[in-house]
Write a structure and sequence with these properties.
Layout (H helix, E strand, L loop, with lengths): L2 H5 L4 H11 L6 H42 L3 E5 L7 H9 L4 E16 L2 E10 L1 H4 L3 H4 L4 E4 L10 E4 H7 L6 E12 L2 E15 L4 H4 L2 E5 H7 L8 E6 L5 H12 L3 E5 H4 L1 H39 L1 H9 L4 H32 L1 H12 L6 H4 L10 H27 L3 H5 L3
Parallel strand pairs: 3-8, 5-7
Antiparallel strand pairs: 1-9, 1-10, 2-3, 2-6, 2-9, 4-7, 5-8, 6-7
């Protein structure tokens, strides 16, 4: 071995030597077992991090899409006087830069009664033209039965799929709505009761909404809730929900009357803050899996250095530099981390792409319902991999794996050939 070859960083002999140390031999079986556990640990850690982060991102994204797809990004509510001038206010709000849709609505809580029982629901009266601009309601994949044709002209209602199942009704059947805010009489307030035919059944994909919402034509809702000539509030949908702050000031000016404007962040601050905290805590906890696997690399590499002390001494006497020995053991340990990280990434990618099929298979295998829609609001298990976050996970795993090899490699490079060969 020439001095020039020995001194060149990452020379072929260094790669070859690192590869030989990775191969299992009979007398090094225990060291190979530790290396194998390190590889599996890093692979599982990276896979778990990628899958959990993707599911949490998908969960948050789907919830935001469902919540903000049917509720306005900002809600304009009247102060002091009812919203009788809602047509002109809606027109001015629609012209604000960044606003996609301004939709007046009448809303109230009632009891819906059907053949199979009675449930509390939220009735919302809207114009058919506004309803058609909400793809979560009127898209072909969301209208499971009936249609919204002639919605404004009739006196029928549209209800969620889960609510229809609970009430035991379908398109063409009738549902009775009972409101506690009825006519005042000498004997007290009598509930307002009216029966409506079902014209459409929709599926938003969020169980809470599919089992709660009932839509009525605007004119009919105003009559039912005794709000002739006025509305409850105006929903405002914008192009960029994350940029709602600056637009709120423009909305306040555009209304030209006293109003209270609340955006989606204020209405859901507790919910989304809890999701963010849970996501960060899960990331830190699952990182410990990778850290433990990296510590296994330290122990395995330390034992390998001790076992190869004789070989290191001979290499040093043949002209190998301290840097060459350092690089050999750095490559040996890092190879375990790199291979584990790549395997974990590929395994995590496959699981994320087939997460719903895997959920259904496990549910069938265990005869239990995983990810119950009643508990988690969504009907499917979502997974959304984000490039920046995935790259961060991979870099973190690679960094921990590399750092785990530094100390054993440094010890190998510092080994004195005289001491190693003294008793040979």
């Amino acid at each position: 071995m020439s001095e020039a070859k020995a001194g060149r960083p990452f020379a072929p002999f260094e790669w070859k030597l690192a590869g030989r140390y990775l191969k299992s031999r009979r007398k090094e079986a225990f060291i190979s077992v530790i290396a194998g556990f390190s590889f599996v640990g890093i692979m599982l850690g990276v896979m778990t991090l990628i899958v959990v982060m993707a599911v949490m991102n998908g969960f948050r994204g789907q919830l935001m899409e469902k919540i903000l797809g049917i509720n306005g990004h900002a809600v304009v509510q009247p102060i002091d006087t009812p919203l009788t001038d809602y047509d002109s206010v809606t027109d001015r709000l629609s012209k604000v830069d960044g606003v996609k849709l301004a939709m007046p609505f009448v809303e109230g809580q009632v009891l819906a009664s059907g053949p199979a029982g009675a449930f509390g629901v939220l009735v919302r009266g809207v114009h058919a033209a506004d309803l058609q601009k909400m793809p979560l309601l009127t898209g072909p994949e969301h209208v499971t039965l009936g249609s919204f044709d002639n919605f404004d002209n009739g006196a029928g209602i549209a209800i969620g799929e889960r609510l229809a199942e609970s009430l035991g009704v379908t398109v063409g059947d009738k549902v009775t709505l009972i409101s506690p805010k009825g006519q005042a009489t000498a004997l007290g307030t009598t509930p307002r009761v009216k029966t409506y035919p079902i014209n459409a059944v929709f599926k938003i994909g969020m169980s809470e909404y599919d089992s709660t919402f009932v839509f009525l034509p605007m004119a009919e809702a105003q009559k039912y809730f005794m709000m002739d000539g006025k509305v409850s509030a105006i929903d405002v949908f914008v192009n960029d929900p994350d940029n709602i702050g600056p637009i709120k000031d423009k909305l306040t000016i555009a209304t030209e009357r006293p109003v209270l404007i609340t955006d989606w962040r204020q209405r859901n601050v507790t919910f989304f803050s809890a999701l963010e905290v849970e996501r960060n805590v899960m990331f830190m906890i699952l990182t410990l899996i990778v850290l433990v696997a990296a510590l296994n690399i330290v122990s395995g590499m330390t034992m390998l250095v001790k076992d190869k002390g004789h070989d290191i001494a001979i290499l040093r006497t043949m002209g190998a530099t301290r840097g060459a020995i350092l690089r050999v053991f750095l490559m040996t340990g890092s190879a375990i981390g790199v291979a584990g990280t790549i395997a974990g990434f590929l395994l995590g990618l496959v699981i994320c792409l087939n997460i719903e099929s895997i959920r259904q298979f496990i549910s069938w295998l265990t005869t239990t319902e995983l990810f119950s829609p009643e508990l988690y609001y969504l009907s499917k298990l979502p997974a959304e991999m984000q490039m920046g976050e995935t790259v961060s996970v991979l870099l973190m795993a690679l960094a921990l794996s590399f750092l785990a090899t530094v100390y054993p490699a440094w010890k190998a490079a510092r080994l004195d050939p005289v001491d190693a060969l003294r008793y040979e």
